[in-house]
């Protein structure tokens, strides 16, 4: 780990040294990190610098800290990566209308491609699972929170047909990041039945095996929701 740290930002230096060990594979997923005392003695720093470094690494999703145990290198996970982006993404969306519009456009492009891939790769079991999710959504018309949760599940399941866990995690992240901004405006009474009809249309398009048709069905669905959001925003100005 080298000799004592002489720079002013001690916590950052400790973080960088531990990060380098993780990136070089000297500390692998599941490995325990040295104890606080060992790090203090080896690096010549105080407890506050070590704890600052540990908190930063935990915040980045690189280590896990449990009470009474030594910190360990976290198992890599796409879901963990998306979770780490969530705080920054929400901050960006709250303070930038342009970023919100850009993210909605990005989601349309992403979801349309997921629908096209699903049309090419789906199985009968995939179609049954999507239909079951929509049926559960229809049964949740009187429960807005459950309806929205199943809405996200529907889109996540379509991404899952790709067989690529990165796409599934991104689908979940995109839905969660935008959900806070759409809840009050998109969940207008009477719009839920239109959502259900569009979801059924997307399933039919995927089931047809026509990738172009599936992409158009998804685009129409998301563009309708985005237009509703824009109208609602204009009414609230």
TrEMBL record:
The keyword Transcription applies. Gene3D superfamilies: GntR ligand-binding domain-like (1.20.120.530), Winged helix-like DNA-binding domain superfamily/Winged helix DNA-binding domain (1.10.10.10). Pfam families: FCD, GntR. One of its GO terms (molecular function) is DNA-binding transcription factor activity. The keyword DNA-binding applies. Keywords: DNA-binding, Transcription, Transcription regulation. Residues 8-76 form the HTH gntR-type domain. Coiled coil: none annotated. This is GntR family transcriptional regulator. It comes from Paragemmobacter aquarius.
């Amino acid at each position: 780990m080298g000799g004592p740290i002489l720079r002013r930002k001690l916590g950052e230096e400790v973080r960088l040294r531990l990060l380098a060990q993780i990136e070089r594979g000297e500390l692998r997923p599941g490995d325990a990190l040295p104890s606080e005392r060992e790090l203090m003695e080896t690096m010549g720093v105080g407890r506050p610098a070590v704890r600052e470094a540990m908190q930063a690494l935990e915040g980045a999703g690189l280590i896990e800290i449990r009470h009474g145990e030594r910190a360990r290198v976290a198992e890599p996970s796409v879901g963990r990566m998306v979770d780490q982006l969530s705080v920054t993404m929400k901050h960006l969306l709250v303070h930038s209308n342009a970023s919100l519009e850009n993210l909605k456009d990005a989601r349309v492009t992403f979801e349309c491609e997921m629908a096209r891939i699903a049309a090419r790769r789906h199985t009968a079991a995939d179609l049954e699972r999507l239909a079951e999710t929509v049926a559960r959504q229809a049964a949740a018309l009187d429960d807005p929170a459950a309806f929205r949760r199943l809405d996200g599940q529907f889109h996540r399941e379509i991404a899952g047909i790709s067989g690529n866990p990165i796409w599934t995690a991104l689908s979940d992240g995109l839905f969660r990041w935008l959900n806070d901004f759409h809840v009050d405006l998109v969940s207008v009474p009477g719009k839920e039945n239109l959502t259900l009809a569009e979801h059924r249309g997307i399933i039919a398009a995927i089931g047809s095996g026509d990738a172009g048709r599936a992409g158009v069905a998804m685009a129409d669905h998301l563009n309708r929701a985005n237009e509703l959001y824009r109208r609602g925003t204009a009414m609230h100005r």
